[in-house]
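User: Hey, my collaborator sent me this sequence without any context and asked if I could get a structure. I don't really work with proteins. Can you help?
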Amino acid sequence: MLERFRQSLALRLAVLYGLLFAIGAAATFGVLYWLLARALEARDLAAVEQRLQEYAALYDVAGAAAIRNRLAAEQTTPEVSSLLVRIIGKTGETVFARVPTGWVETQEKQTLVPDGWGGWEPQVVRTVRVPRNAEKDFTVASRPLRDGRLLQVARSTDNRAVLLAPLRRSFLMVGSGALLLAGVAGGVLAWRVTRPIRVAADTAREIIRTGDLAARVPAPPGASGELAELVHQLNALLAHNAKLIGAMRETLDNLAHDLRTPLARLRGTADLALQPQADPAATREALADCVEESERVLRLLETLLDVSAAETGTLPLRHSPVDLAHLLAEAADLYREVAEEKNISVTLDTPEPITLLADPLRLGQAVANLVDNALKYTPDGGRVRLSLRHEAQKEAIIEIADSGPGVPPEERDKIWRRLYRTDTSRSQRGLGLGLSLVKAIVEAHHGTVDVDAAPEGGANFRVKLPLVS
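Assistant: No problem. I've predicted the 3D structure and written it out in structure-token form, which is a compact way to encode the shape of the chain:
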């Protein structure tokens, strides 16, 4: 049970759904976090650059004194008191610096710098150093002034990683809860969605256990889409298999019945021939009967093999041009003596020759079986008509109509089964495979065959063959 649960499709779908949800949520949060950090950085930089532009404009008008006066006037303003403003000379010395207290340190030292006349003059150099602080970010902007000096404006702000730490903690808490909820919801949804598959598997196990071919997969209420279609197709497959197995059982029953009679006759005649005082003439006659019955059994088995080969597409066909009018004439001539014995009129209606590519031997066998079938069930003095026509130059149509009892509508689909016989045909001698072989051969030529009522009240067998393969 545990192993089956571990291999459950619903569990794997739920895990996959949770994993995809986690990856998607983490990617979304990462993008949003990056955009927010960039927005905060851009905001700090924009504020510093705005101050830089203001102080540069003051310097262009009134020099460094104007910047100093402006800073002194606004030194109590938080936006200004947190600013570092510095003017750096051409040689790197600090000309002016306004340094906020608490976050920077200043160091002063005296050094000699060129006086421009070939000598040196003393000058105090002040160095500004930002102390290291993991909880602070440093934003600086610089701009060259008109006289070649460099104006710098900097600001120390709260570290953006520290500022966004509560957001990360909130995401972890909310994301964990959302992931758990998504996993549970995904598991429930996957379990419901895959229910038709589990029901189908249970139905298959039940059929294997009980052999009940009538069992069907119950359709889930309100189901639609691919799974509903899957249930429908599975039920159609089960019905088709049940029909095939039923037909196979019926075929085997009929085959056993048809084989029992000749085999029993074979044994009886063989016993007669083995009698010690048997007459030589009677012995030869018994052996002749054995040969005849064995040939009948062999013919039955060979026909069954031909039908099976044609239905599975393995029947060898040797295609060549076939004149269908000539084929019908040969079939009529083959059974002319049988028709004359029963005083049956056989007529041909082939107004024009029609040629197609087919196996003349196999197709002639199919036509001969239909003619033999028509003559067998047509009463003495009846009529059999063989006609040929084409339809829009796309397919040839062969019709063989008789004036016999016809085929009841409820049995027109059954007569093509192997060894199937209607109530009216059980008195006739035959293998019960003629029409099965006809259907198999015609379908092997990509054609169709059916039967309906003839205009004169008998059966009308219609064969349609494509003219272009």
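In plain terms: The chain has a mean pLDDT of 78. You can pass these tokens on to your collaborator as they are.
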